[in-house]
Amino acid sequence: MMTTIAALMLPLALLQSGGATAGSAAAVAEQRFAGCVAMIDDDATRAYEEAMAWAAEGQAVGAYRCAAMALIAQNRFDEGARRLDSLGGAVNPAETAMRAELFSQAGNAWLLAHEPARARSSFTRAISTVASDPAQLPDLLIDRSRAYAMEGDWRKAEEDLSSALDLRGDDALALRLRAAARMRQRAFDLAETDALAATRLEPDNVDNFLTLGNVRESRRTGTPVED
Prior knowledge:
72% of the residues lie in helices and 0% in strands. The protein is built from 11 helices and no strands. Helix 5 (96-112) runs parallel beside helix 7, helix 6 (116-129) runs antiparallel to helix 7 and helix 10 (188-201) runs antiparallel to helix 11 (206-221).
């Protein structure tokens, strides 16, 4: 149940804190952020330097965010995660979507750093930030389940995945991950039901069939298959 750096590279629309200038200034900041993120793929070190120069100009949220992402691209996962956590805490509390996105990115960076407890904390902050908006919760719950899984807390992982599926029942990823969590708890019948549902939703996704195969082998032997 590992994550990838791709989750940290997604360009996002909200770039400024609550005191930002609206209109054209926001559009310029968005374009600058997009350009900075694009630079990370080519030269993460240069992107970091450019982001910090931009931050010195006006302390834009997008500048600090890009700098943190550039650190993560250099495999400096813990540094990037700390910066994203700090930035999420510093953003105007009214900017709930932005704060949740920053905490979520921090959580994914902590997972890359193999720090599941810190990841869980970041994801929990994100979940608390958008608790009143169910549309945003499933992805965050799925992410936090990965942290629980890395800690070996399969029951908590299953609970988060079940909550996500209560909100978005046709999520093949959540079903596949819950199948794995249930398999680790030796609930093989329930695990197989989830894995089969995932294959029906995404018949072209090989990972779903690999999970189904692992569940069936686990049931045959009575011992959960290790990933």
